[in-house]
Amino acid sequence: MSDNISGVQLSQWFYEYYIVPRLSSIMPTLSYAAALVGPGSEVLGFDTPMSRDHDWGPRVLIFVHEADISQREAIFAALHKAAPATFNGFPLNVDQTIVATVPAYFGRRLGLSPSRLLEGLDLLDWLTIPAQRLAELTGGIVYRDDFGELTVVREHLSFYPQDVWLFLMASVWNRIGQEEHLMPRAGFVGDELGAALIASRLIRDVMSLCFLIERSYAPYPKWFGTAFRQLACADELMPYLEAAQNAKEWRGREQALSTTYQIVAQMHNELQLTEPIEVRVNHFFDRPFSVIGGNRFADALVSKIEDSSLRKLAAFNFGGIDQISDNTDFRAIQERFQSPSGETNPLRAFFDRLL
Length: 355
Prior knowledge:
By secondary structure, the chain is an alpha+beta fold. The chain has helices spanning 7-26, 41-44, 72-80, 102-110, 114-119, 123-127, 131-138, 149-156, 162-179, 182-188, 192-213, 221-228, 234-246, 250-271, 294-302, 308-314, 321-324, 328-331, 333-336, 346-354; strands at residues 32-36, 61-64, 86-87, 90-91, 98-100, 141-145, 282-284, 287-291. Helix 9 packs antiparallel against helix 11, helix 9 runs antiparallel to helix 15 and helix 10 runs antiparallel to helix 14 (250-271).
């Protein structure tokens, strides 16, 4: 057992030296796809030896045609036959191997019926899916894809459609605009704890915006900061974000956040999605508090959205599920309440009602 092996490497060995020989011997004509996707720190490349205490080990997902799903039991039989207790020094539990069709697996993870997945997500569907879930399904590694369906679906999910991208960035800029003046206001009356809490929310919003600007899915809190450090903007922003987070008084937070806002505003302009917007911070009305005016960027982005439903929804400033809530169970609502018939999940129904 090696402390240096990653989950992806172990999975690849498991595929090459366990899955392939058994299926090739017993089911040589079977067309299938094999991959490591879905939940698990190893899928995002963030696993460490500590990750091995649960839900970690040699595993691969196998995807077959709908016409071949009846062979699921034969596939499991081939994998179970004379199965050793360990593989490469790690406990082997063949029952962890998932055998499914691509539409069924991805549909369940996205909270969509398999038929909806094949038809393609519409723009409002994207708003119900946490970025963590999209990172799980587009991360990892594909070892084999005989019929190309897995590759096509992952490419479709690789990033948000243009209008959804604009919508989500606008919603984060709105969040910044709604609270950027509250941090110094709380500090001004001596509420340093309150000011620090608001600053932390603003830091998270800025970081979330950076993921969107760099067209990358932000993972959930455990790996949020780790993934952020991999962004191109991280080296420039990290000193100011850390200064804002660690400042002892509100003026230090304000100074660090002001620099941060201006850097991210320049990043916005470099996307050339809107007309250039002034990146300088200004006073909030007559108050001595520096703000970037997040609503200016939000309004400019919304004006570029072509879809009428998303433009109408943007007026509510809710954003998608990641902007609406950070509650873990709520973010899983689209999967928890998915019906076999493919009825709309509660969050999608909420968006539809607003329209």
